[in-house]
Amino acid sequence: MTSPADASPPSPPETLPLPPGSSGLPLIGETLEYLRSSRAFAERRQRQYGAVFRSHVLGSPAAFLLGPEAVQWIFAGEGKYLKNRWSPGVRRLLGAHCLAMLEGNEHLERRRLLAPHFSYASMRGFVPIIESLSRRHFERWTARPGDFTLWPAMRELAFEIALALIFGQDTVDLPFLMHHFKAWTAGLFSPFPIDLPWTTFGRALASKKAMIGYLEQVVAERQARTEQPPDLLGSLLQRREGEEPLSRAAIVDELQLLLFAGHDTTVTAMSNLMLMLAQHPDVLQRGREAVAGLEGPLTLEGMRATPYLVQLLHEGMRTIPPIGGAFRVTTRDVAFNGYRIPKGWTVPVSIKMAHAGANWPTPDRFDPERFGGENPEQKKPGTFIPFGGGPRICLGQHFAMVEMSVMLILLLKHHAWELVPGQDLEYTQVPFPKPRSGIQLEFRRIDAGERPLAEP
Ligand code: HEM
Prior knowledge:
By secondary structure, the chain is mainly alpha-helical. 46% of the residues lie in helices and 10% in strands. The chain contains 18 helices and eleven strands.
C-alpha cells in the first residue's frame, strides 16, 4: 500500500543530511582499519550507524550503502549518477584504453565487440579445449606427491586456458607472461603506488612495459595476416565497415585486462573451493555422486543436467567471493534513503557484505544446499553478486562457470586431495583471498585403471 508520505515527490539531495559516520584522521581517514578487514569495518559501523554510513577511505570521503536494495541502486546508477572509480595506481597499470576504464557509449561498444566470445552458446567450442588442458595439468599434479602447492599450479592451468581463449592456436610465451603478470598483479593492489625500481609498484610498471612490448609484437604479427582466426584477438582486430579500427595500444590494453581478469579470479574460486571440499568430506562425497554418471568427452548439456555443480561453485563463491568488492564514484549530488551523497564521493560495492549479511542465515557455513531446489534464500536480488551487476557485470561469467565446471567434474571423478597437516591456512585478502600456505595438498588419482593422457 502507498502511504501519503510515499506519494510525495522525493526531496532534492541538497536539503538532506549527510549519512551518519566519521571521517577519522586527517588525510588517511579510516583507511587503515578498512584495509585490515573491510568486512569487520563495515559490520562494526553498521551496528553503530545502520545500513547507510559515511567514512573516509583510500583518499576520499565515502558513503557505504549496505543491503540488497542498496546493491541494486548502485548497479542501476552506472552512467546515471555513478561511474567506475579506480585508484591512480590501477589506472596506470591497467591502461586507459581497456574495457574496465571506458565509460558510456565507448564502454557499450567495446562490450558489444567482445560479447560474442563470451555468450553461453559459444562456450560449446571451449569445453574440449578446457577439458584437455585440465586433464593434462591434473595428471602433472599427481606426479608431485608430498610436494604440491595448489595455488601456483592452478594459476598455470587457468593462465593457459585464458591464453587459449584469447590467442586460439597461436603459440605465446607462457612462462614470460606468467612471470610478468605476477609482478604486475602485486603492484595493482599496492596501497603505496610509488614508482621506484625497488618498490612493488615500480616493479609492476617495469613488468607492464615488458608485457606491452611482447603483446605489441604478437598483435603486429597478427595484423600482418590477411585473415584473422575466430579467436578473441581476431575479433579485436576485425572491424565492421565504416568503423575505425581499434588502435594497437587499445588492443594491447584489452589483452592485458582479459588475461588478468580471466585467470586470477578463477584460480581463487577453484582453489578455495577445493580447500572447502577437503574440509567438508560429506559435501565432497555428494559432489562425487552427482558427477558419477558424466562420461567424457564433457558437454554443456551434461553440465546443465548436473545442477549440483552450480550449487558447489555458487556456494564456494558466496562463502569466499574471489573479488570482495569494487568502487564507484558519484557524478552528481544524489539522494539515497533520506541522505545526501555529494558529487565526487566514493561508493563501495561490497560483494563480501552482500554475501555475509542478514540475508544468509549462518553466512560463514559452507552449505551448497542453500542453492538447491526452490530454496528462497537464493532468490533475493542483490544478495548473491560474485560477478557484480548492472552494465559492468563480469564479461567472462559464463566462460568462468564453464571452465570451473569442467575442472570440477574431472577433479571429482578422477582425483582425491587431502590437506597436508600443520600448514598455515590463515587468509590474506590482497590481492585475492588466499590462505598463506597456498594450500598444500596430497593430490592423487583415484581411478588408477584409466590411462593418463600423454604429454603433448
Ligand atoms: C570466478 C571467476 C570470476 C569472478 C568472480 C569475476 C568477477 C568479476 C566482477 C565482480 C566484476 C565487476 C567489477 C566491477 O563491478 O567493477 C568483473 C568484471 C569483469 N570481468 Fe570477471 N570475474 C571472473 C572471471 C572472469 C573471466 C574468466 C573473464 C574473462 C576471460 C573476466 C572478465 C571480466 C571483465 C573484462 C570485466 C570488466 C567488465 C566491464 O567493466 O564492463 N572475468 N568480474
